[in-house]
Amino acid sequence: MKQYILTHGNLLTMRDRTIKYDTDILIRDGKIQKIGRNLTASAVQEAAGPVNGINSEADAWKCEADALNGETKILDISGRYVMPGLIDSHCHYDADYMGKMFLACGVTSVRNMRGYKRHAEYAAETLAGKRTGPYIYSSGPIYDGEDPGIPDNSNEIVRTEADVEQAIEYTIRNGFLWLKTYPSIEPELYRYLLKRARQQGLPVCGHMSKKLDDKVLADAGYYCCEHSSSLPSHNADIRYLAESGMWFTPTQAVCETLPDYVWNGKTLPELEHFKDLPECERESWESRNRKIIESYRSQGVRPDIRVVISRGRTFLEYSDRFMAGTDCAYPGIIPGFSMADELEKLVELYGCTAFEALKAATVNPAAHIGLEEKKGSIREGMDADIVVLAGNPLADIGNVRKVSMVFQGTNLYDEETIRAYGSEAGFLKKEEIEFIHW
Ligand SMILES: [Zn+2]
């Protein structure tokens, strides 16, 4: 039995906005066993056994020494802040190098939004402790109709009811949690898909529809709208979706890449952590970004980011069912590090309090995934997915960048490991990386 006691931490359980100062946490077998004061003393007493007890100071010292040298590791985290591990609620975990970057930034789980068989294998390997990276909860592939607007469309195209059945079957068989749709599926087929998915208990998430009224999707129980840019243009319609109980992932940071790189002259190397990506990834992003820039400039489309923000804000006025997702590794959105960017945007642009933003990265996605009894907040009996920060994230949301320790179940990543994990991908050669293709 290996156990840890984190002592004298300032605990933000995320069950409410208070901080429990000077609190200890006992972690055993990957679970939060106990929360309270002076847990070290009780652990020492337990080590001494119920019969002998601790009769003298000398005994106490001996027991403490045994505890320290043996099964219990005591970590003094005085002055630091403890919160639940972050959940990136919209990502594309398409290369193995990303796993350590996520952990370095306190992201202990991800919601992967395009899953193939290999992603399902990654998820199982992570759970079994054979892969270093966040736990993976994934949708299946992206299903769309014919869309001539997408060059080199790599999405799965559904043309017939048989295709819909196959999509549902593939998604369920691989253990994926959601069926993901893009907006060009033909209306009648879309209705059929929503009906069949619902009958089989499979929630549908994605980019809504270009051809079907969004309210029809809401009425059919469409589970989550991805990206502020996918929301309808009229406030009344956004309100309708919000009040239907639909979830929403704004992904504001990725929405901004379009105006930033296409029109505002931003470049990828300006990003603080661009150098921490593998060289081959940097090259691939540069080339993809060039294509995106050319395509949008030639179409002359110049989206107004203020409109996108105002749609997202409207949703948040009527619902608290929203999640912080980054859409990494879209060019410009760095795995792990972009999580803090998204949280800052929720505060600065969407008017969230720091607590609401943090909920969007913990409690909310845990509920969305159906894991609220295991993850997303800190209480006895829950999974030990924990981030230790060197600053109070409620006082300044930017303090989520100051990760000093991460627990993920039975794994402890200390400060040195975190620092290494945050930068070592920058030294990887292409042949050392597994990219997931489909
Ligand atoms: Zn995405």
Distinct compounds present: zinc ion
Q: Considering DSSP H and I runs of 4 or more, what fraction of the residues is helical?
A: 25-40%
Describe the main β-sheet briefly: 8 strands, mixed
Cα shape: globular
- What is the CATH homologous superfamily assignment of the largest domain? Metal-dependent hydrolases
> Stretches where pLDDT falls below 50 for ≥5 residues?
none
**Structural class by sheet pairing and helices:** alpha/beta
In round numbers, the mean pLDDT is 93
Instruction: Report the top-level CATH class of the largest domain.
Output: Alpha Beta
CATH names the topology of the largest domain as TIM Barrel
- Number of E strands: 16
Description:
It is a single chain. By secondary structure, the chain is α/β, with parallel strands linked by helices. It has 2 domains: 3-79, Urease, subunit C, domain 1 (Roll); 86-378, Alpha-Beta Barrel (TIM Barrel). It has helices at 39-48, 57-69, 98-104, 117-127, 161-173, 187-199, 214-219, 235-243, 252-263, 279-299, 305-318, 338-348, 354-359, 363-369, 415-423, and strands at residues 3-11, 20-28, 31-36, 72-76, 81-84, 86-91, 107-112, 135-144, 156-157, 178-181, 204-206, 224-226, 247-249, 385-389, 403-408, 411-413. Strands 1, 2, 3, 4, 5, 14, 15 and 16 form an 8-stranded mixed beta sheet that branches. Strands 6, 7, 8, 9, 10, 11, 12 and 13 form an 8-stranded parallel beta sheet that branches. Helix 4 links the parallel strand 7 and strand 8 (135-144). It is globular and about 70 Å long. The two termini are 41 Å apart. Bound molecules: zinc ion (ZN).
